[in-house]
Write a structure and sequence with these properties.
The complex is a heterodimer of chains A (244) and B (106). Chain A has one helix and twelve strands, in the order H-E-E-E-E-E-E-E-E-E-E-E-E. Chain A has 244 residues and is mainly beta. Helix content of chain B is 15%, strand content 52%. Classes of the chains: A mainly beta (244), B alpha+beta (106). The interface between A and B is medium-sized, with 25 and 26 residues.
Chain lengths: 244, 106
């Protein structure tokens, strides 16, 4: 391993450790893996159920096209549709450009690392834009796959929040069968750094998930339960990916 | 807390030092993997260099090895696996069901 790669690896590890409280405003977990030449279409669907009408029936749909440009870089263009509680229909809220950078081959080091950089352009006037960095760490132990995502984001443009958003997502699953891998996930949105929110003012979710691959379609679904007051009582998620 | 972070960093540093792995090469040509059977030491990380000398994309895949990697025509890629427990680990080309092989760890 050359010195540049060592520095990159150590910097990413250190950054991941020292930003251990970060923001999560979606409920997907990204593994630090890139497959050169692979093109895939993705759909990420989240639906909230809550006793509070202000949070009930929120629905987010993200549709994207991803391509592995090199062994170390994949890029994706995606659009997000959201239906707010009480709204009649979904509307396009933003367009995202995501770049996943993985400096090493999977399994090359003690843990696999990567970073996902995202720029989000609001589709509605008056909504803020967003820039986000997600630090990815994966460590597989036997048949258990363990992934951590630490996220920071900063809004800019009209009505942008002050401070830096922080989030965390943890995933562990058991490689039981290619078509069925059960696991658990935890997602936290700590809010803006300037807000100093209490635990119950932050968004914390935890629950069972299942993922697998059937033919060329990868799925990742689960039910997450709110464990803080601000989180929706129940969030259902379904992520689908079709590989070409 | 600070001691834990230092300890974890040291473990990661140690991991970088352990990146060395025994090398093996598999070539995909004429719709087959060559060699189709490889024996490797159990309990040791290995590096598979998969060369694609065919005219089509090869997708090296193995659920048992937990690896899936496309290789473009004329290119090669390194795939790190293990340390493996003793046993057999089948692999195949997801684009060509006739191309398959087995890694035996012992």
């Amino acid at each position: 391993m050359n010195s540049i790669k060592k520095i990159t690896y150590l910097s990413a590890c250190a950054l991941a450790l020292f930003t251990a409280q970060a923001k999560a405003d979606d409920i997907s977990v990204t593994a630090p893996r890139v497959d050169k030449g692979e093109m895939s279409v993705e759909a990420k669907l989240n639906y909230d159920v809550d006793n509070n009408a202000a949070q009930d029936q929120y629905f987010s749909q993200v549709y994207g096209l991803e391509y592995g440009v090199t062994d170390y870089w994949a890029t994706e263009l995606a659009g997000e549709l959201e239906k707010d509680p009480g709204a009649d229909s979904s509307r396009l809220t933003n367009i995202k450009w995501e770049n996943l950078i993985v400096p090493f081959k999977r399994g090359e080091n003690w843990a696999d690392i990567g970073v996902e950089l995202e720029v989000e352009k609001a589709a509605q006037s008056g909504d803020p834009n967003n820039i986000e960095a997600k630090f990815l760490v994966e460590k597989d132990v036997g048949n258990f796959e363990n992934i951590a995502n630490l996220k920071i984001n900063r809004e800019f443009g009209p009505n942008a929040a002050t401070g830096i958003g922080r989030g965390l997502a943890l995933h562990t699953s058991y490689r039981l069968d290619e078509k069925f891998e059960p696991g658990l996930e935890y997602h936290a949105d700590f809010g803006q750094s300037s807000d100093n929110l209490s635990f119950n003012e932050q968004d914390h979710k935890f629950g069972p998930v299942v993922k697998g691959k059937i033919a060329s379609v990868k799925y990742d679904t689960g039910i997450l339960f709110g464990v803080s007051d601000a989180a929706a009582d129940t969030t259902a998620k379904l992520n689908l990916e079709y590989e070409f | 807390m600070r001691k834990s972070l230092i300890a974890l960093t040291l473990v990661m540093l140690a991991g970088i030092g352990n990146a060395n792995a025994a090398d093996y090469t598999i070539t995909s040509k004429d719709g087959k993997f060559d060699p189709a059977a490889i024996t490797v030491p159990a309990g040791q990380k290995i590096k598979l260099t998969v060369k694609n000398e065919s005219k089509d994309v090869v997708e090296f895949e193995s659920y048992d090895l937990d690896r899936e990697q496309k290789i473009q025509p004329g290119e090669s890629t390194d795939i790190y696996v293990g340390p493996l427990n003793a046993g057999e680990y089948p692999f195949f080309d997801d684009k060509n069901e006739d191309a398959k092989g087995t890694i035996t760890a012992q």
